[in-house]
Amino acid sequence: MSDKRGPKWPWILLAAVFLITAASIAFDKYKARQGPPDPLPSEIKPWFGPRNQLGLEQAAQVAVDGARARLALNPEEWLRQEVLARALVRRFRATGAYADLAEADGLLDKGMAGAPFPAGPSLSRAEVSVLAHRLDAAGKGLKRFFAQVGEPDDGESAGAWSLKGDIAFQRGDVKAARLAFSRAEEYDNNAAVALRQSMLALRTGDPDLARRRINAVLRAPKLSRYVKSQVGLQRVTIAYATGDWKAAGTWARFSERFFPGSPLAMAHVAQQKALEGDVAGAVRQYEAILAKAPLPEIMDALAFTLRLQGRGAESRAWAEKAGAIWTERYSVMPEAAAAHVVEHELALGDPAKALPIAKADAQARPHGASLILLARAQLLTGDARGALATLERAEKTGWRTAGLYLAMADVQTVLGDTDAAEDAREDALDLNPKATDPAARYIWFGHD
């Protein structure tokens, strides 16, 4: 027996060495992929700008008033029209007032029409068009920008290539988006580029890269409180996508403390309370936010939370209030409001009303998020096979999120293919171990 066993030991030892070496290499690659750990919230410092939401809104108002007064001195000058438009967009970002976005949109149309080609507010035109989800108009603005005779500075070039990436991403062309963002990074490796690259990485199944990009921005020295608070909320989104609810709570509360008074940051904290089991506290916080900032997205979050608690009458009351505001916003800027209206109707209203809006949005912006909403609308209106085709189309674009695979599992269940449904749920859980946790239904902000 000993003669037979002896020669095998070297091979066993050699195999063990190979296994240990392979494991070490794999672990080193994993560590490299993970990158450095998250910064501590206490390590993050601001640079300049308003200290809280009130200061942000006051600064935005001062900028709008000043730009409007200067435009009154020469109403046909496109540069003054552009300055007011950009001030209005800053106020829109601060308050969510769609009237400001609509006015900015109109001013830029006038500026483009009144300026001799290829001059004019072309980059601002493209930026606001992307913000309003009008991709054709954005593309025309960029074409005019690149037709300029003079060489743009690096910041402008980075902005233009970033917008090209935004357009490609929303059109479902992940490869073109990645290339455009890389080109933007060559001109100016700034926070705006990094945030775009982070979201692209997250939605295409690479949360580690998404987290590293965000962490670099959080560590950057020259960014305002408002910007870093918003970046913190994107870090929350990454945490939700990977089922790391503890990290989500850390960064939601960081954003709330770092930039006091932000309705969106406070709403993330309210949502986190529900995830942590304090649903009553979440409801109270949502109500307190809405008393000062009656934003329809927060009304929707509250209405859905109440619905999950079986408080139907209260849920319907808030849903009706939100629905009225979304209807008004849709009438002012339909493309900008479309996805919000669809979400509202699917969760709290009438899926049949959502369906045509979802179809139009997915036709204009055929990326994963729009296609998943369309598939949900198709499923809830009885077209399961159409929903499956829509989700397969989303997957072919490179979209990889737990939300996509959960939607696919729902569709396959209705179609009676239990094996395919189970496979889809496993794919979702591979990306997000808490994807099927009942408490995950409370995630309204930052879901995928």
TrEMBL record:
PROSITE patterns: TPR. Transmembrane segments: none annotated. The keyword Transport does not apply. TPR repeats lie at residues 402-435. This is TPR repeat-containing protein. Keywords: TPR repeat. The keyword Plastid does not apply. It comes from Novosphingobium subterraneum.
